[in-house]
Design brief:
The longest helix has 40 residues. With 501 residues, the chain is mainly alpha-helical. The protein has 21 helices and no strands.
Length: 501
């Protein structure tokens, strides 16, 4: 078969319209630094944990992975990013199964983010309402956390994001940049508020904790423990730093070689600075003992964000900071809408998924992948309502698929290094492969990640979802392989070629 007929067409149809700011913000949204300062990490703090040291270690282990991503995104800058690398270096079936599994897991994550965005809104409404004695605001926050309203709110927000991306792809990227700037700016403002209240941080924070229904705790544990600090590393590793594939996934649309070359490292460094500064100002203002005691005992109501709102001093500043937290949630949904569509587009371009998913509007928008994203996320939102929000939390346990995926990317780096005599990739790949092997093990055995219950038995919902996702992905590839073979198209030949831009 001629090379020109392997793919759906001879060019992707996507437009190079993503500037340096857009791709940096896309990556930062992928790493979700703002939510690391909310409730994704601090509620799991142990006596003796030092989040600054844990963050530094997590950052250092992310550097080899960033090197691998930077190497490949400059060498093979194609839509689909690491899916293309895995499928060409290792095997088309492996690339498809892993990428499709990751996207299904991502759909569940985006649906959970959309659904539980109401919890961030409720946190903001409840705290501002409590501080200012506004019962109506408190009641409104409580209403929005009810399942049906959480569903409606989440779906409407996501539908608006999808619509913007469909109308014009550039608008979707501009939305990412706007949300990123607002998120980062309000995070900095929140840091400033905390630092400005260092002298009475403990007193005011204690009042806020009591007002929100918590009980101010004291601390008698160690000032530092390596074991407790390293215990926190997987939380940072699985929820923040490794998620650097957003920029590479849209590589074919990025303008300029420098944007390709530096986007991963700059985004990683900025994320490290944000997370470190957030934890740092809390330790500095409140002292290690007070802050650690509240994280351990009030981890879901005492966070960087709730502390900043409580210390703000006036309602306008409270709302600015509160909107910043809410914006981080929307930021994640906005990056997700773009990244999901590009992975699906890449697999469809390789003929694994229906070719209709490669249709692109004149404005560079892969319209049908966005529509698939909207309906699939809506389906998962409905499932969350159907099975109950507490049961739906088990879907977070599918993070094990993400750790496994990055392990496969690391192996691809090793294999490519050996085959092409790129010597530096081999030891770097070995380091990241070992690291993600460990993280895969932790995510599959630590009850805090949701894959297993406290008794060590797998959560049935999570287990069924993970196994079902892998089986479904395998079936999709096998069916696609056989279907294309009947048409005289050998998928194995496709995976020997790099797709066109």
């Amino acid at each position: 078969m001629e090379k020109s007929h392997l793919f759906v067409r001879e060019s992707s149809g996507l437009i190079k319209q993503v500037n340096f700011l857009d791709v940096i913000m896309l990556n930062i949204g992928n790493m979700s630094a703002g939510l690391a300062l909310f409730t994704s990490i601090t509620p799991y703090v142990q006596p003796g944990s030092n989040l600054l040291i844990a963050t530094l270690i997590g950052f250092l282990f992310a550097l080899p992975q960033a090197y691998i991503y930077t190497y490949f995104v400059t060498k093979i800058p194609r839509t689909g990013g690491d899916y293309v690398w895995i499928s060409r270096i290792l095997n088309g079936g492996i690339g498809t199964v892993m990428a499709l599994s990751l996207m299904i897991e991502s759909l569940a994550y985006f649906a959970l983010t959309a659904f539980f965005a109401s919890s961030a809104i409720q946190t903001v409404f409840s705290e501002i309402g409590t501080i200012n004695s506004n019962q109506g605001l408190i009641n409104l926050g409580s209403i929005l956390t009810q399942p049906i309203y959480s569903f409606i709110l989440g779906f409407v927000i996501f539908a608006i994001i999808i619509t913007i991306n469909i109308v014009r792809a550039k608008w979707g990227y501009s939305l990412i940049s706007i949300l990123g700037i607002v998120s980062l700016s309000t995070t900095i403002i929140a840091m400033g508020v905390i630092l400005a209240n260092t002298s009475d941080f403990v007193t005011k924070s204690s009042e806020v904790i009591s007002a929100l229904g918590g009980s101010v705790a004291s601390y008698s544990g160690p000032s530092f423990s390596w074991g407790a600090t390293l215990f926190m590393l997987p939380f940072l590793a699985l929820y923040t730093f490794p998620w650097m594939q957003a920029g590479p996934a849209i590589a074919a649309e990025i303008k300029g070689k420098n944007s390709l070359k530096y986007n991963v490292f700059i985004s990683l460094i900025l994320t490290f600075i944000i997370v470190t500064a957030g934890y740092g100002v809390m330790y500095y203002a409140g002292g290690y003992n007070f802050v650690t005691a509240q994280y351990i005992n009030n981890g879901f109501i005492f966070t960087f964000w709730t502390a900043a709102i409580g210390l703000a001093g006036n309602e306008i500043l409270q709302w600015i900071i509160g909107i910043g937290l809410i914006t981080w949630e929307v930021f994640i949904l906005a990056y997700g809408a773009i990244v999901f569509s590009r992975y699906i587009f890449a697999m469809a371009f390789d003929r694994v998924l229906p070719s209709v998913l490669t249709n692109v509007t004149k404005n560079g928008s892969p319209i049908f992948t966005h529509l698939l994203d909207l309906f699939a996320t809506g389906f998962f939102l409905g499932v969350i309502v159907f099975i109950g929000s507490q049961n739906a939390l088990a879907l977070y346990g599918a993070t094990v698929l993400g750790a496994l995926y990055f392990l496969i990317v690391s192996i691809a780096g090793i294999v490519h290094g050996i085959k092409n005599n790129v010597t530096q990739l081999v030891p770097i790949g070995v380091i990241t492969a070992g690291y993600f092997s460990y993280l895969t093990y932790v995510s599959a055995t630590n009850p805090d990640f949701g894959f297993v219950n406290s008794n060590g038995a797998p959560n049935p919902i999570t287990l069924a979802f993970v196994i079902g996702t892998l089986v479904f992905s395998i079936v999709v590839f096998v069916v696609s392989y056989l279907y294309n073979k009947k048409k005289g198209i050998d998928l194995n030949m496709i995976y020997k070629e790099i797709p066109p831009e």
